[in-house]
Amino acid sequence: MRPRWDDGPAELVLVRHGESVGNRADAAAHEAGSEVLDLSVRDADVELSGTGRAQAAALRTWLADQDGAAVPTVVVSSPYRRAAETAAIALDGLGPAVDHDERLRERDLGLFDGLTGLGIRTRHPEEAERRRKLGKFYYQPPNGESWADVAVRVRSLLTDLRHGYDGERVWLFSHQAVIMTFRYVLEGIDEADLLELDRGTRVPNASVTRYRRSGRYLDLESFADTTAVDRVDVEVTHEQPQRGRGDDAH
Predict the structure, then answer these.
(1) What angle do CA 231, 93, 234 make, to 5 degrees?
(2) Is 77 or 6 the better-scoring residue by pLDDT?
(3) Where would I find the H helices in 145-247?
(4) Radius of gyration of the chain (CA)
(5) Of 22, 28, 49, 215, whose CB has the highest number of CB atoms within 10 Å?
(6) Domain spans, the chain
């Protein structure tokens, strides 16, 4: 069921963080056929790569070139370093101060954090089988979160935004799985359609997904838009479907 917006933001923009060193480690592990990612920090502390910082700067340049009405009036970011850095660079000198909300953090993979899909299947075959039976949406890794758990967080944040933010242009800086879950909640799509969308579409780094309020609903205007990065000499990056860190992209 799609949530109704009798009041609340006039515009909701979801931005995925720029490319991180974790994204690069994931790609390297996949190419090498490794079971683990070569990372020495916890997921919350993974920083942007040089390309990721350039992508965030491209977003700032694009936003500065737009009509003043495009500048956000409210900005909230995941507290994870790669998202917070993206928000800070993209809004430097342009928008309001960036708030941080843990409900925008990446899905917690628990015991599987730092493992590739191969690593999970090799080291935890019983969990790989349990995931196959339960399905990706409801499967919860040991000590981690399912996509359904992320949906609860998203619904909670949206409930807050529906009160006290009437007419605001709200930008949220987050992660791939969370942005996909926003689509699940805001558009009322079902589990099968969400997973099909996730299989076929990866959300590029520093891409923009935009909703505008129309009547009593927020309607999707653009999804995974890379216009800001495309217009400058910066690489557009994203993961290949179904790989790395338990097949959720960080």
Answers:
(1) 20
(2) 77
(3) 147-161, 176-187, 191-200, 227-230
(4) 18
(5) 22
(6) 11-236
